[in-house]
Amino acid sequence: MEKLTSVEGRAYPFGMKNVDTDIVIPAHWLKTISRAGLGRGAFEVLRKEPGNVFDDPEYAGSPILIAGDNFGCGSSREHAAWALGDLGIRVVIAPSFSDIFSGNAFKNGILTVVLPQEAIDRLMEVAKTDPIHVDLESQTVTTEFQDRFGFDIDPFRKHCLLGGLDEIGLTLGEADVIDRYEAQVAGERPWLVPAIA
Description:
single chain; globular; 34% helix; four-stranded parallel β-sheet; alpha/beta
């Protein structure tokens, strides 16, 4: 997983409330087990509408998405986080998230930032013309206009995102402990160790 320390750039001023995972990535995209290319299907239904924010060249490649309340509700499909990641989104800012979506986003290196609606409204305005800065270390979202919004994050999630640690990375970080345990088991119960041909 790629480390996430800070993200700066334009943000999609999306703002829609109650966006379920079927809106983020429709069900017909779930046939794949690959993350590559899922960004093409992100918000597919909304992108059929003329003038949608996701196909506006002004926001192309934006690493931040500003959403409305209850983002990521609905099914537990991890493909929603995969699609956002493939679209280039590293941070989603909203007043609230579905717990399952928030967990899937975290496991895929996407930071979910919870801010009050007043802050969301302000960031939606700024996003129309200027970049936004999200700093995970200081847990702040700032703008060039001296706006500063603090956010809370679980310390374990912060540690993992800052270090780029997914479950595999966390496990590999304990390689010495695992090796010592395996050596101990091999010495105490050699019949459990597979023979090498």
